[in-house]
């Protein structure tokens, strides 16, 4: 892998902005046709919709503190590990989520951003007992969480 310092700096700028809750700076890192995916928001298309997702996430993640490390990038792709620490607002429960991020670049911007984490572990932390512990691993529960998140995202339109 030939290291691309510009793309590594772009990933770092994105996470620095996330750490400051600076949505405008985060948005400036994204290509207009960016797509985002994670275990809850499986596939979101377009910078406007992706930024609505971040506004929603920052709203339900009370006191989000983030840290990142292991940033790597080449001409086309990049990776990073980041940790999100926050209080999940609907339950008041503390969450520490370890996330592996994958990026693809186009025109010097992030055109694809995919975050991956252990949904079951997140569910136990965010939702607690009995829901997170008993149901966090089931497809039906995941669909319920995903549907609720999509409804909240659509309500911001």
TrEMBL record:
Superkingdom classification of source: Bacteria
Gene3D superfamilies on file: 3.10.450.50
Name of the protein: Ketosteroid isomerase-related protein
Domain (SnoaL-like): residue spans on this chain: 12-113
SUPFAM superfamilies reported for this sequence: NTF2-like
InterPro entries noted in UniProt: NTF2-like_dom_sf, SnoaL-like
Signal peptide stretch: none
Keywords: Isomerase
One Gene Ontology MF term: isomerase activity
